[in-house]
Design goal:
Elements: H1 10-19, E1 24-25, H2 28-33, E2 48-50, H3 55-68, E3 72-75, E4 92-95, E5 102-106, E6 111-114, H4 120-127, E7 132-133, H5 146-152, H6 159-162, E8 169-175, E9 181-185, H7 196-200, E10 209-216, E11 218-219, E12 223-231, H8 234-246, E13 253-258, H9 259-266, E14 280-288, H10 293-306, E15 311-314, H11 318-329, H12 331-334, E16 341-344, E17 347-348, H13 354-367, E18 373-377, E19 382-383, E20 385-389, H14 394-413, H15 432-435, H16 438-451, H17 466-472
Parallel strand pairs: 2-4, 3-4
Antiparallel strand pairs: 1-2, 5-6, 6-10, 7-11, 8-9, 8-10, 12-14, 12-15, 13-14, 13-18, 16-20, 17-19, 18-20
The structure holds flavin-adenine dinucleotide (FAD).
Flavin-adenine dinucleotide (FAD) is lined by residues 37-38, 73-81, 84-85, 96, 116, 138-140, 144-145, 147-149, 151-152, 154-156, 204-205, 209-210, 332-333, 421-422, 458.
């Protein structure tokens, strides 16, 4: 017996009418493509994907979803690694890829206005001939969107010196989860009133959809010098990082890659000439005005030698510099050679605890049968341990999740946190109570609720689910409980 196809829900028909059939996907094979972001451990397909071209389109989509009580969530390029763009409760995925216009470039006042689907590197490409760039540079910058960067408050190698996304966003136009359109900030730095731009940046798609973004443009440095040092031990490379900062030098970037990563890169088409007999390589870049750069390079070389670097290469020209960076930038991608799936973790520890953190991460991995590889923004203490596994096997996925949880525990125990730059999303929401007590979480949740009162916008993210809270014996009140005002003397926390 042939069953007749089930009728489309009314909201889906309404969306097709509003946007046109070519801007709405709902076939099972289309939905599959959007069932995860770059964290393949967590998969949930949406019921439809829509492709708006304007703020008005986004507003109409949101209003339709609200009218029918259907969950919705924004998505950029899907390079997120914390499950942020995954439709945990089904509903409508609002894919911003077609909103990719650079609307304005004002070099005199050093800002640009972009739509959320503009790819990070495309903005730099558009202004580099005039001597500017958009400074936040996630290693995914050739693919990820500025909308996604805003939602995750993304970092990148050069954020050590230049700061993360929040330091570069001066305004946002947002379609709120109620369907209203608001604007926070704009071209003028430090607009009056509460800093709601700052609140929105890093809100992981739970406070609305950014449809227009004002960002700072930063002059390109006069001179850039890049060097690569190799070490016999990971400890020596991590200690060199602390020594460089202690010497009062602020490099633009300091990145460490471990032995396994070096070997996988060198066996791939992204070969960068990293020494394969080293336990770790440290990539250091300094930039700025011509005066002073050579002195900084020579001070760094002295420190690297004092930490017994086996070899030091100072890039002679731009081609050599691009080669050295090429290996680092391909590091997550090449790990795909190791198995069907990779799990890139994102924890942060105080820089001085890096050697201990790495030893403990290796031990956790070994206990769960993983040889962990590490690539990280060492200057920020931001670790990215990588686990590779066969995602087709349930036991492998379980093992990866358990090891991941323990690794993030280590970061918290060492005085760090469960995310340095990839966000909490769906991956780590259940770990939030490790760092925040019920009062902290209740205040955060009440801020989100002002923007997203019906919890239809990207539900199931950032905050622990009730099941997890129950298991951990803690509770999150819907409104913050009254308590004594936190004292500044106790760092803002209750004694
Ligand atoms: C190879 C690789 C390297 C990476 N390197 C770095 C790195 O160096 N530093 C770093 O910080 N991250 C890095 N990442 C993670 C990722 O690229 C960033 O988190 C990036 O900002 C995600 O952008 P996206 O466009 O892919 O967003 P998506 O993954 O599509 O979405 C991410 C989040 O943003 C929300 N969102 C998307 N668009 C909007 C919008 N218009 N309004 C509101 N919310 C929105 C989504 O709902 C979701 O919660 C890397 C990822 C990969 C795969």
């Amino acid at each position: 017996m042939v069953s007749s196809p089930s009728p489309s829900p009314a909201w889906l028909e309404e969306l097709k009418q509003l946007l046109g059939a070519d801007a709405v996907l709902s076939q099972p094979e289309d939905l599959l493509v959007y069932e995860s972001d770059s964290l393949t451990l967590r998969r949930h397909a949406p019921q439809a994907i829509v492709f708006p071209r304007s703020t008005e389109d986004v507003q109409r989509i949101v209003r339709t979803c609200v009218k029918h009580g259907v969950p919705f969530l924004p998505r950029g390029a899907g390079t997120g690694i914390s499950g942020g763009a995954v439709a945990v409760r089904g509903g409508v995925l609002i894919e911003c890829a077609r909103m990719k216009r650079i609307l304005e470039i004002d070099l005199e006042n050093r800002f640009a206005v972009v739509e959320p689907g503009v790819v990070n590197l495309d903005l730099t490409r558009a202004v580099s001939a005039a001597g500017f760039h958009y400074a936040p540079d996630p290693s995914s910058q050739s693919t990820c969107t500025i909308g996604g960067n805003v939602a995750e408050n993304s970092g990148g190698p050069h954020c050590l010196k230049y700061g993360a996304t929040t330091q570069h966003v001066i305004g946002v136009e947002v379609v709120l989860p109620t369907g209203d359109v608001v604007r926070f900030g704009g071209p003028v730095i430090d607009s009056p009133g509460y800093d709601l731009t700052g609140v929105f940046v890093g809100s992981e798609g739970t406070m609305g959809i950014a449809t227009r973004i004002w960002v700072k443009l930063t002059p390109l440095p006069q001179i850039v010098r890049t060097m690569l040092a190799s070490f016999r031990t990971m400890d020596a490379s991590a200690n060199a990082v602390s020594d460089i900062i202690a010497a009062g030098i602020l490099p633009a970037a300091m990145e460490i890659l471990d032995r396994m990563t070096i070997q996988v890169i060198e066996a791939s088409v992204y070969r960068a000439g990293y020494p394969t007999d080293a336990d770790a390589v440290l990539l250091v870049e300094v930039d700025g005005a011509a005066a002073g750069i050579e002195r900084a390079v020579s001070s760094i070389v002295t420190i690297l030698k004092a930490r017994a670097a086996i070899a030091i290469e100072v890039a002679r020209d731009e081609e050599a510099r691009q080669r050295l960076w090429g290996g680092r930038k391909s590091a997550f991608g090449v790990m795909g050679r190791m198995n069907t799936d990779i799990y890139v973790l994102d924890g942060v520890v105080p820089r001085s605890r890096l050697p201990e953190a790495l030893r403990r991460v290796t031990a956790v991995g070994a206990r769960h049968g993983f040889e962990v590889s590490n690539v990280f923004h060492a200057g920020d203490g931001n670790l990215h341990p990588i686990l590779t596994f066969d995602g087709r096997k349930a036991e492998d996925r379980e093992r990866a999740m358990r090891a991941g949880e323990e690794i993030l525990r280590v970061c918290v125990e060492l005085g760090g946190a469960i995310t340095g730059e990839h966000g909490v999303g769906l991956e780590k929401n259940e770990f939030m109570p490790w760092t925040f007590d019920e009062h902290d979480l209740a205040v955060m949740k009440s801020v989100r609720d002002i923007f997203n009162p019906a919890d239809l916008c990207n539900p199931g993210k950032v905050f622990p689910t009730p099941r997890c809270i129950e298991a951990k014996g803690t509770s999150i009140p819907s409104t913050p409980p009254t308590r004594r005002a936190p004292s500044l003397a106790t760092g803002g926390r209750q004694p």
